[in-house]
Each structure stands twice: as structure tokens, then as C-alpha cells.
Amino acid sequence: MSLERRDRLVEQIVDTQPRLTTFVRPLPSDMTAGSWDLLSYSFQRAFEFMWDQACAESSGLLTRPLLSLWRQSVELALKASILEIAGSIPGKLSHDLQGLFERLLAERAALGHDDDDDLARDVARMIDLVQTFDPFADRFRYPTTKDGTPFEGIQVDRDELFQAHWIIVTWCEGAAIEIREGRGSP
Q1: CA 74 to CA 72: how far, in whole Å?
Q2: Whole-angstrom Cα distance, residue 185 to residue 183?
Q3: Which of 12, 91, 127, 143 is in the most buried spot, having the most CB atoms within 10 Å?
């Protein structure tokens, strides 16, 4: 279905050579507009769809796009949880997953929550692994460093990647839900 649709679109381009001046435009009813939580969820879903596709092909061509979606989804889950708990997101942490997780823990600690447990430590270790492997959020998106040095290849256990994504994102969501319920919010 998708291949047939793409072929029809290409035929339309060849036949009509349209001027594509408005292929991206504002949409006032976009449900993710302004919502960190919904945008985070949309990236979670995109990661799951891409994971399905990456598992179906054997060339490894989708590995880096999959890792990029994984990283962005985790980053958005962290930021959405911080925003819900603290009311703002620190700009200086930008793409620093490790710093964002530490900030999330600090915000929870300031409200009296103790996250000194095995699950929080496991989540921290998974986040630290990715942050150490991709400290500038560029290794999965580009073939070289800024100075042109090629990145080494990447080997990924897709099943463990999926599980790590689920654990981290679920932990972040649960951390925010626990605070919300403690405040008596719906």
C-alpha cells in the first residue's frame, strides 16, 4: 500500500510538475501543538513503527534513523516529565539526556520523593550509556563529527533497544503521574 501510494505521488510529480509551495503549513487543530506530552507520545509511536520496519529489513540501513527516533523520544519523555513536575524545562540541558534525568530526579527529590532504588539506577545506567555513546546528539544523525572524522559503525540489539525505550519512557511517565496524583490533579 505504501509503495503504491509513493509510486502514484511520483507519477503525479512527473505528469504535472506541481509547484510544491505549501507542503508544510500551520494547522490550528494539530493536537500535538503546544503539548510536550502528546509530542513525546507521537515520537514514542514513531519509534515503535520504525522499530517494526527495522526488524523487517536485514541491511541495517534503518539503524541510525531508529536510534535517532529512540534518542528523541527519550529526550521528549524526560522533558515532558520535568515540565509537568517543575513547570519549566531548563534550556541549558538541551540534548543532554543524563543532565535531564538528573534534573528529573532533583525535581522529584525537592518534592520529597526518594528514587534511590534499583529501577531508577537501571534507568540512569541506560541513559548514561547512550549519553556517553552519543554525547552531542549527533552520532546517530550524521556520518562524521563536526571536524569530518567518521563515526565508527554501530551495532544494536533491537530487542534490547525496544526494551530500554519502554523502561525509560514508562519510568518518566510514571514519575510525573506519581507527582500529579500526589498533588490531587487528574
Answers
A1: 5
A2: 5
A3: 127
Cell, residue 142: 550524521
Q: State how far the Cα of 61 lies from the Cα of 118, in Å rounded to an integer.
A: 35
DSSP-derived letter for residue 92 is G
State the Cα–Cα distance between residues 2 and 66, nearest whole angstrom: 19
Rounded-to-integer distance, Cα 85 and Cα 81, Å: 6
Q: Would you say 168 and 77 are in contact if contact means Cβ atoms under 8 Å apart?
A: yes
- The per-residue DSSP string of 120-178 comes to HHHHHHHHHHHHHHSTTS-TTT-SB-TTSPBPPP----HHHHHHHHHHHHHHHHHHHHH
Grid cell listed for 164: 530500554
Instruction: Give the pLDDT band (50/70/90) at residue 111.
Output: very high
**The dihedral formed by the CA atoms of 24, 25, 29 and 34, expressed in degrees to the nearest 10:** 80
Hey, what domains does the chain have and what are their CATH numbers? 32-181 (1.20.120)
C-beta atoms surrounding 153 within 10 Å: 7
Chain segment 142-161, per-residue pLDDT in tens: 999 999 999 999 999 999 99
